[in-house]
Design goal:
The chain is an alpha+beta fold and 824 residues long. The protein contains 25 helices and 21 strands. Strands 12-15-10-5-19 form a 5-stranded antiparallel sheet. Helix 9 (216-241) packs antiparallel against helix 10. The longest helix is centred in the C-terminal third of the chain and has 37 residues, at 659-695. The two termini are 49 Å apart.
């Protein structure tokens, strides 16, 4: 008989031969003496065979279907590099680990190392040396992106190609999917389970995307047809491979069976694919699909940023002639907006930024597809803005933005800090604008309807806005609104009646030298004083807020907007001519949603001819000082737009150490270490606990038996085959041949003698036996090399099956006391 056939002996039946390098002795198999190791007789791993190449091609097709899901959210072909790179790198890592037969822990370590080393050139080439080699910045970016990138990905307004740092998310998604799917395909007995991580990757990519799908029918057919057909072939291979092929006729029969099942399965799946493609349009759901960006609350909190309306009087009076901005490309008659303000707390009108009827702020870049707050069909326009004397977080803009490109020296910093609320058409930068900054706006501008068109139109009264509590409303607002509206019931007539009443009764004054005294502010007390007084004196700030609050009382959705425009009577500028904005161009107005027009500006500014004639200086009577409005605690008197009062930041500066950033770094470094070292510590702890229980068993004979079980478990970790259900002597004969270690027989005989002997062995006998076991194990592992010993120590083979479950149960039991078990 050959050396690879079955042999019978006192040790039972064994198949083949196995040898651990470095252990001397001859292996006798079938009467022949051989010293060749098991590696020579083992079949090569599947990853190194042609069948493994087929598995790799199938995995690439399936991963391509997953990667395509990132196309809509990215908005350009830039998604191809991180997704294709992640898929190829992940399959390469899985193939290498399968070819080398590395255990799970080594595979996990290789996955982390490859991610940090090769991920720089794929996902973050701008931070890599020469675009390929990893640097400290690239490692930091990959580590932080793996932890925080997911949140940034779903809270940034698509398309995302303006934010190259977010490429870590699609790269990591495809990388992990490829590693897990490739490992299962090349190493698992039930290879069809590789379709599970592929399906999970597709679901994850869709959840990270937008409501718009890429190619849903094609993606589903690719994964369904190719995946199921490949899975069926792997199942057929497994079933046919269980039977030993000994003749050419049986080989041909097996090939015919495989081909028949392949043709049958391909035909069935092909017909199903055609039917699915034809039925897809009819079966597609009518509603949009749900994504994570629809339910995840954006992290930006706009409340620390002071409302620009608080600085209205500063622009109108103190900076009246100060040059703030230079704007080029804006058509004449268009307004520049700073912010739309939809929340009122009785002290200040502010931007809510919290949903619930208001908008939400998402990161924005040079391509913005989200829309809202305006009608379709605008004229695409490019507007260049250069900042002069203006400062603050609120970005001057016009129309509905489709992109914002920073062109100044701080372009990179401002891009990272830019947010846009498409519903209110408000943009801000958390870093704040300052003199010298410049940017280009890509925007859709629409021509505003005339007043006659609005009076013939319809107000969308069901539009949701953040609610205003009744107790913060000015007490005079309801009575004055009733007086102005009279018996009008139509919302449009009510709106213009309120506007006309304020314009006719009001006196315009910003507190300038030739104007009547006028207090700034728009608190409930200030607006109540305005509406209840004999002469309503104020400027845009007070009248816009008064109109908005009275409209809300009348059931008309209204918000306040602030920005800049030139009085049409004084505007001589032509379309596209540069416009230097000064503080005196500041205005505030009300915006109301009209059907077909979107949010339309409504001005409520009295004519400047409506004046209270000041008395001659000789006849003026001194008046008592008027108390100013109490400022809210969160807005001290020296606040201006752009100043963020962040107590937490001040405390961190006082302490001199940023604990938040330190926590991010600790998490970025600690989590990968825990993921890699945690399983290592768990395996070593299980094995140590198992040995301790065996060494401290209450009965001496159990401790002797435990020593033999330690021999068996080490043999399993070395890769030897321990016959299931065999006696100690049968197992010893098999291991003595496979490990080339004749001393195994003596240990088995001594263990049998202690267990089946007439009396219990002494503690000295137990200690001597365990010393011999340790010497035997050291000898077996002495010549196998350091890396092999590490793999043996971390092997999971001895923790599988019933003996493995027993070790897990032992982990949660207190070991016997040292005195009960003899020597430690």
């Amino acid at each position: 008989m050959s050396a690879t056939t079955e042999t019978s002996g006192a040790s039972g039946t064994t198949r083949g031969s196995r040898r651990v390098r470095g252990v001397s002795g001859a292996t006798t198999t079938g009467g022949l003496s051989t010293r060749s190791g098991s590696r020579a007789s083992e079949a090569p791993p599947r990853a190194a065979r042609p069948a493994g190449l087929v598995d790799g091609v199938v995995m690439l097709v399936l991963l391509a279907a997953v990667a395509a899901a990132f196309s809509p959210v990215w908005g350009s072909t830039g998604w191809v590099r991180p997704t294709a790179g992640g898929a190829l790198l992940g399959l390469l890592v899985a193939w290498l680990c399968a070819w080398r037969r590395w255990p799970t822990l080594v595979t996990a370590l290789a996955t982390v190392v490859a991610y940090l080393v090769a991920g720089a050139g794929i996902a973050l080439p701008s931070t890599a040396a020469s675009g390929v080699l990893p640097t400290l910045d690239s490692v930091r970016g990959l580590a932080v992106g793996a932890v925080h990138g997911w949140k940034e990905f779903v809270t940034t307004s698509p398309p995302l190609h303006s934010f190259p740092d977010l490429a870590v998310v699609p790269f990591l998604t495809l990388y992990l999917t490829a590693v897990v799917a490739g490992t299962i395909a090349w190493r698992a007995r039930l290879a069809a389970w590789a379709l599970v991580p592929v399906a999970a990757g597709l679901v994850g990519a869709n959840l990270l995307g937008t409501k718009e799908g890429a190619w849903p029918v094609e993606q589903g057919l690719a994964i369904g047809v190719v995946g199921l057909l490949w899975g069926a072939l792997r199942v057929i291979e497994q079933r046919v491979g269980r039977h030993t092929v000994t003749t050419e006729a049986s080989r041909q029969a097996s090939r015919r069976l495989r081909w028949y099942r392949f043709r049958t399965g391909a035909t069935i799946l092909g017909l199903g694919a055609i039917a699915a493609a034809l039925a897809a349009p009819a079966l597609a759901p009518a509603h949009d699909r749900a994504t994570l960006r629809d339910v995840v609350v954006p992290p930006l909190d706009v409340h620390p940023y002071v409302s620009p309306l608080t600085a209205f009087r500063k622009y109108a009076k103190d900076d009246r002639k100060t040059e703030l901005l230079t704007i080029d490309g804006l058509p004449a008659g268009q307004r520049v907006r700073l912010a739309a303000l939809d929340a009122y707390d009785g002290v200040v009108y502010d931007a809510s930024g919290e949903g619930d009827g208001g908008g939400v702020f998402h990161r924005a870049g040079d391509d913005i597809t989200a829309s809202g707050g305006g009608p379709a069909g605008g004229t695409a326009t490019q507007v260049d803005v250069h900042v002069l004397g203006y400062s603050g977080p609120w970005i001057p803009e016009a129309g509905a933005l489709t992109g914002i490109t920073w062109t100044g020296t701080r372009a990179a910093q401002l891009l990272d800090d830019t947010y846009y609320d498409a519903l209110t058409r408000t943009a801000l930068t958390t870093g704040g604008l300052q003199s010298g900054d410049s940017y280009r706006l890509d925007t859709d501008l629409v021509k505003q309807p005339t007043e006659a068109q609005l009076k013939a139109g319809t107000i969308l009264t069901d539009t949701q806005l953040p609610p205003i509590d009744d107790h913060v409303m000015p007490t005079s607002a309801a009575a004055k609104a009733t007086q102005f509206m009279g018996d009008a019931t139509d919302p449009v007539k009510r709106l213009f009646a309120l506007r006309d009443g304020l314009v006719a009764s009001g006196v315009f004054s910003s507190g300038l030298e030739n104007q009547a005294p006028s207090r700034p502010g728009h608190s409930a007390e200030r607006i109540d004083t305005l509406l209840a007084g004999d002469s309503m004196v104020g400027d845009d700030e007070q009248f816009a807020v008064a109109l908005a609050l009275m409209a809300r009382q009348a059931g008309i959705p209204a918000r306040v907007a602030m920005g800049f425009y030139v009085d049409p009577k004084k505007d001589t500028r032509k379309d596209g001519q540069p416009w230097t904005v000064v503080g005196g161009d500041v205005h505030a107005w009300v915006e109301v949603p009209f059907q077909g027009y979107g949010w339309v500006p409504i001005d409520a500014v009295p004519d400047e001819d409506n004046k209270i004639q000041p008395e001659p200086k000789s006849q003026q009577v001194p008046k008592p000082p008027v108390l100013q409005d109490p400022q809210p605690p969160q807005e001290p008197a020296d606040d201006v737009p752009g100043n963020v009062k962040d107590d937490k930041s001040q405390k961190q500066q006082a302490k001199g150490f940023d604990w938040g950033f330190a926590g991010v770094i600790a998490a970025s470094v600690g989590i990968p270490l825990v993921l890699v070292l945690g399983p290592v510590a768990l395996v070593l702890g299980l094995k140590s606990r198992r040995r301790l229980h065996r060494r401290r068993a209450p009965r001496p004979s159990d401790r002797m038996s435990g020593g033999w079980r330690e021999v068996l478990d080490t043999a399993r970790d070395l890769g030897a085959t321990v016959p299931p259900g065999a006696t100690r002597r049968e197992s010893a004969h098999a291991l003595a041949q496979e490990l080339e270690a004749p001393a195994t027989l003596a240990l088995a005989y001594r263990a049998d003698a202690s267990v089946f002997g007439a009396s219990e062995p002494s503690d000295a006998d137990v200690d001597e036996y365990w010393a011999d076991v340790d010497a035997y194990l050291d000898g077996v592992k002495a010549g196998i090399g350091r890396r092999r010993r590490l793999r043996v120590a971390l092997s999971l083979r001895s923790l599988r099956g019933e003996h493995g479950r027993a070790a897990l149960r032992a982990l949660f039991r207190r070991p016997p006391a040292a005195g009960a078990g003899g020597a430690r």
